[in-house]
Amino acid sequence: MGRRWEPGLVRVLCATTGNDGHFGPLLPFARAFAAAGHEVRVAAPASYAGAVERAGFVHEPFADGPRELVRVVMGKLPTMAFAEADDVVIREVFARIDAQAALPSVTATVLRWHPDLILRETAELASLVAAERADVPHVHVCIGMHEMLPLFAGAIGDPLEELGQLAGLVEGRASSALAAEPVLSLVPEILDFAAGQEPSGSGHFLRFHEPRPAASAQRLPDWGDPQAPLVYVTFGSVTGSLPPFTGVFRRALDALADVEARVLLTVGRKIDPAGFGPLPFNAHVEQWWPQDAVLSQAAAMLGHGGFGTTMGALAAGVAQVVVPLFTSDQVVNGAHVAAADAGLTVEPGPSSVERAAAELPRLLADPTYTASARRMAAAIADLPSTAEAVPILSSLVG
Q: Which of 168, 194, 212, 314 has the highest CB neighbour number within 10 Å of its CB?
């Protein structure tokens, strides 16, 4: 059947793994295309249907990676060094187990729905080879700082070639396609290059900013000293599902108990706040709260260096202490925050939570960190809006 929409409109398939921190950077581009009247769908794991539907998009599901295979890999991580464990997750979980499980349905979606353009986030690889097989233009939405891309590419070489062969591509085509993709980024150059020299190959980056939503009218509960500054503590949406790290929540609360601040901790939907028992006087715990609503009132943030939380605080001009917990991109994000003087970072791992908490009084007392965070916010706001990405990306459609 022929397509039934006006000339000039395109079908855009956004592809993501089942992770809020990975889907988040895709969303502003998906919303910009939808707002311009284009048809947008999201390919994501079947288990991630709720998040896709809450975002307002049609879900094109694909299979989750087999839990038993993922469990074997994750069970080995506690015996590995931080960097080695991160490399294993990228190579074995994202690039091999998840991608191979996703490939049949993603390929079927591309052949059935005929998207004109595919936008994929860094860790979602099935759509890359499916796009190459169908000769559909594809674009890479970066979910971190630029320097993570060569690290990621170096880790996925063999499994990406395996994936390409499963898709029927000639040898080397998948790797060449990865290297040639245009890259969209939500990071301004002043932050991306803060920790060192301008990375090679950064010229094909297209940088945009997500327009900030209107301030939420959702009022925070009452607790602690109403005159004390608000400190937002979040370790993202994944930490609560990882048994080795769930203890960091209580440790953070106890370590911040004597800080002169009102501490709001969010723990994610997999943890029941009632399980924490009596809380320090200055603390309140929620499963989830709109991040923009909290950051509009926060004096500082303590986070794990996840891309969404890190960039959210910077976009709001809020200084932060970063304690990377379990991935190298969190380490990189923390290093860039510190290099930009927009906050502080500590050694990675859950054992550093107390040290991170000990840095908060310094952050609250020194206004230069907030001033630098506000400079980062201005640099982000000065980037072109994601709405301006739509005509640029539409021009890729033949």
A: 314
Is 164 within 8 Å of 173 (Cβ atoms)? Answer: yes
Longest alpha-carbon distance in the chain: 67
Written as six digits, the tokens of 342 are: 């927009």
Q: Please answer whether residues 120 and 42 qualify as being in contact, where contact means their C-beta atoms are separated by less than 8 angstroms.
A: no
HEC string of 64-107 equals CCCHHHHHHHHHHHHHCCHHHHHHHHHHHHHHHHHHHHHHHHHH
pLDDT tens profile 341-376:
999 999 998 899 999 999 999 999 999 999 999 999
245 — pLDDT class (breaks 50, 70, 90):
confident
Query: Residue 189: how many CA atoms within 13 Å on its side-chain side?
Result: 11
Domain 230-381 indexed as CATH 3.40.50.2000: yes
Residue listed under structure tokens 């793994």 = 17
**Joined tokens for residue 56:** 């307002």
Measured between alpha carbons, how far is 80 from 63 in angstroms, rounded to an integer? 28
| Segments of the chain assigned to CATH 3.40.50.2000 | 11-209+383-394, 230-381
Cβ-in-10-Å burial (0-12, 13-18, 19+) of 395 comes to exposed
How far is Cα 210 from Cα 227, in angstroms, rounded to an integer? 32
Could you give the angle at which helices 157-166 and 126-134 cross, rounded to 10 degrees? 40
Sheet strands (E) in the chain: 11-15, 39-45, 58-62, 117-121, 138-141, 183-185, 205-207, 230-234, 262-266, 283-286, 300-303, 320-322, 343-345
What CATH code is assigned to 11-209+383-394? 3.40.50.2000
Rounded to the nearest 10 degrees, how much is the dihedral formed by the CA atoms of 44, 47, 53, 57? Answer: 10
For 274-314, how does the pLDDT look when each residue is reduced to its tens digit (9 = 90+)? 999 999 999 999 999 999 999 999 999 999 999 999 999 99
Are 6 and 109 within 8 A, CB to CB?
no
Bridge partner list, 12? 40, 117
Residues 331-336: what's their mean pLDDT? 96
Q: What is the DSSP letter of 189?
A: H
